[in-house]
C-alpha cells in the first residue's frame, strides 16, 4: 500500500531529477509500479499541482497588468 505522503515525496524527487518530457516519462514509469490506490494518489497530486501552476501563471498575468496600469498612470502625459 502506497500512502499519499509516499507519492508526494516521490513526485518531488522526480521533479528535482527531471524536467519536461523526461519528467512525464518518469511519472509514467512510477505509476506503473503503484497499486490502484497509489495511482489515485498520484493522479490527485498531479492534478493539484497543475491547478497550482495555472493559478500561479494567472496571478503573474494579473500582477503584470496591475503593474503596467500603475506605470501608465505615473508616466507623464
Can you walk through the features of this model?
It is a single chain. Helices cover 87% and strands 0% of the residues. It has helices at residues 4-17, 20-33, 36-74. It is elongated. The model has no long low-confidence stretch (mean pLDDT 88).
Number of helices: 3
Shape: elongated
Number of strands: 0
Pick out the low-confidence regions.
Answer: none
Radius of gyration: 19 Å
Reading the helices and strands in chain order gives: HHH
Strand content: under 5%
How would you sum up the major sheet?
A: none
- What class, by secondary structure content? mainly alpha
pLDDT averaged residue by residue: 88
In angstroms, what separates the terminal alpha carbons? Answer: 66 Å
**Helical content band:** over 70%
Which terms would index this structure?
elongated, mainly alpha, 3 helices, 77 residues
Provide a quick synopsis of the model:
This protein has 3 helices and no strands. The protein has 77 residues and is mostly helical.
Write the layout of secondary structure elements.
Layout: H1 4-17, H2 20-33, H3 36-74
Helix pairs in contact: 1-3
